[in-house]
C-alpha cells in the first residue's frame, strides 16, 4: 500500500489530541523497555556539509507491534527555492513475515510527532499553571506545528513572539499563525534576544548546524524546547536543567548535548527523560533559578507509532493505493 501526502493530511486533519496521545503512549513504552531503537544512520555528503539524509529504524511492541524505517532528508537550501527543507518516507514491515506492507509519505508525520513531543514536554515543565505566551525562534514548518500542538495541549496560550533571521519569513509566519491559531496574537521580534526574553516558554527550531545562542536573555524560569538540537552552546546546556528523550541518541552527531558531554566527559548534566517524566512527574524537581532545556533527538519509534495509526486509518477509510505484483 502507498499512502500519499494528501491522504496523510486528510487522516491527520484535526487530530492533535490523537497524535499527542500516541506520542505520550510511545514514550511510556520506550521507558518501559518495550521498543527497539538502533542508532540512526546519517548519510552526509563531502561537498555539501549542511545536507543530510537520516535513516531511523525502529520497533514498537505491544498488541499491535510494528517495525519499520523512516528515511528523512534535510536540505536547508531548499527554503530559498520555495521548497520544504525536509522530505520523508516511512516503510512499514509485517511482524508476521517481515515483508514490506506500506510506504507512507511522512513529512507531516515527522513534523507533527516532533511538535507533539515538544508540547508534552512543555505541559510537564512550565512553571506557570496557565502559561500565556510562547516564543518561537525559527519560522519554518516545525515551529508552526509546535505552535499548533502547544496550543492544543496548553489552551491558556494567548500570545506568541517569533524571530527569524529572515524578517520577511517571520512576518509571513505571524500572518499564517493568525489562521492556524486565531486566538493567539503573534508579534515579530527584531532581535533573537528580545524574543528569548519575551516569554518563559521558548521553542528553538532552526536549521543551525553549530551553536549560536546562549540563555542569558531568557527568564530565570524559562522552559526551552530545544527541538533543533544544535542552537545552544555547551555552556548554556551545562548551566540548565536538562530533559531528553533518550540520552544515548541525543548525545551524538555534534548536538549541543554531545558537545556538553565532550566538554565534561560525562552525562551528569542530564536530569531525566521525557518518558520518566510522563510516567512519574514527581521524579524531577525544577530549580526556579535555572532554565530547563528539553532536547528531543526525535526518536523513530514516534514516527512508527503515528505511521501505524495512519496506515490503519487508511485501510479503514478505503484510502491508499495498492500495488500488486511488487513482491515475488
Verbal overview:
With 328 residues, the chain is of the alpha/beta class. The protein has 2 domains: 2-109 and 301-317, ornithine cyclodeaminase, domain 1, CATH 3.30.1780; 127-298, 3-Layer(aba) Sandwich (Rossmann fold), CATH 3.40.50.720. The protein has 11 helices and 15 strands. The protein has helices at residues 5-12, 16-31, 107-125, 141-153, 167-180, 192-198, 234-238, 247-250, 256-264, 274-279, 300-317, and strands at residues 2-3, 35-36, 41-45, 48-60, 66-74, 86-93, 100-105, 133-137, 159-163, 185-188, 201-204, 223-226, 241-244, 270-273, 292-295. Strands 10-9-8-11-12-15-13-14 form an 8-stranded parallel beta sheet, with helices on both faces. Strands 1, 2, 3, 4, 5, 6 and 7 form a 7-stranded mixed beta sheet that branches. Helix 2 packs across helix 3, helix 2 (16-31) packs across helix 11 and helix 3 packs across helix 11. The chain is globular. The model has no long low-confidence stretch (mean pLDDT 95).
Average residue pLDDT = 95
> Helical content, roughly?
25-40%
- Give Rg in angstroms: 19 Å
Please identify the top-level CATH class of the largest domain.
Answer: Alpha Beta
CATH architecture of the largest domain: 3-Layer(aba) Sandwich
Strand order of the largest sheet: 10-9-8-11-12-15-13-14
Low-confidence segments, given as residue ranges, are none
Biggest β-sheet description: 8 strands, parallel
**Share of residues in strands:** 15-25%
Count structural domains. Answer: 2
The CATH topology label of the largest domain is Rossmann fold
The CATH homologous superfamily name of the largest domain equals: NAD(P)-binding Rossmann-like Domain
Total number of beta strands: 15
Structural class: alpha/beta
Amino acid at each position: 500500500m502507498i499512502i500519499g501526502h494528501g491522504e496523510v493530511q486528510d487522516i491527520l486533519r484535526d487530530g492533535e489530541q490523537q497524535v499527542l496521545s500516541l506520542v505520550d503512549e510511545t514514550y511510556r513504552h520506550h521507558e518501559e523497555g518495550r521498543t527497539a531503537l538502533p542508532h540512526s544512520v546519517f548519510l552526509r555528503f563531502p561537498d555539501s556539509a549542511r545536507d543530510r539524509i537520516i535513516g531511523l529504524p525502529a520497533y514498537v511492541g505491544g498488541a499491535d507491534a510494528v517495525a519499520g524505517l523512516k528515511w528523512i532528508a534535510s536540505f536547508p537550501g531548499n527554503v530559498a527555492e520555495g521548497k520544504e527543507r525536509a522530505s520523508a518516507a516511512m516503510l512499514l514491515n509485517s511482524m508476521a513475515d517481515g515483508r514490506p506492507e506500506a510506504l507512507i509519505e511522512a513529512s507531516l508525520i515527522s513534523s507533527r510527532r516532533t511538535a507533539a513531543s515538544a508540547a508534552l514536554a512543555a505541559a510537564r515543565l512550565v512553571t506557570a499553571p496557565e502559561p500565556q505566551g510562547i516564543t518561537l525562534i525559527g519560522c519554518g514548518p516545525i515551529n508552526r506545528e509546535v505552535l499548533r500542538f502547544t496550543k492544543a495541549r496548553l489552551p491558556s496560550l494567548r500570545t506568541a513572539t517569533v524571530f527569524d533571521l529572515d524578517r520577511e519569513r517571520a512576518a509571513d509566519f505571524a500572518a499564517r499563525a493568525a489562521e492556524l491559531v486565531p486566538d493567539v496574537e503573534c508579534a515579530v521580534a527584531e532581535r533573537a534576544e528580545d524574543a528569548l526574553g519575551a516569554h518563559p516558554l521558548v521553542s528553538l527550531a532552526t536549521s543551525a548546524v553549530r551553536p549560536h545562542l546562549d540563555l542569558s536573555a531568557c527568564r530565570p524560569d524559562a522552559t526551552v524546547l530545544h527541538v533543533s538540537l544544535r542552537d545552544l552552546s555547551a555552556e548554556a546546556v551545562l548551566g540548565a536543567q536538562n530533559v531528553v528523550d533518550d540520552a544515548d541518541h541525543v548525545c551524538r552527531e555534534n548536538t549541543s548535548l554531545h558537545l556538553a558531554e565532550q566538554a565534561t566527559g560525562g552525562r551528569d548534566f542530564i536530569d531525566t527523560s521525557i518518558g520518566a517524566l510522563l510516567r512519574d512527574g514527581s521524579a524531577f524537581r525544577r530549580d526556579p533559578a535555572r532554565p530547563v532545556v528539553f532536547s528531543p533527538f526525535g526518536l523513530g519509534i514516534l514516527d512508527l507509532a503515528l505511521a501505524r495509526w495512519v496506515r490503519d486509518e487508511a485501510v479503514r477509510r478505503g484510502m491508499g493505493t495498492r500495488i500488486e505484483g511488487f513482491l515475488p
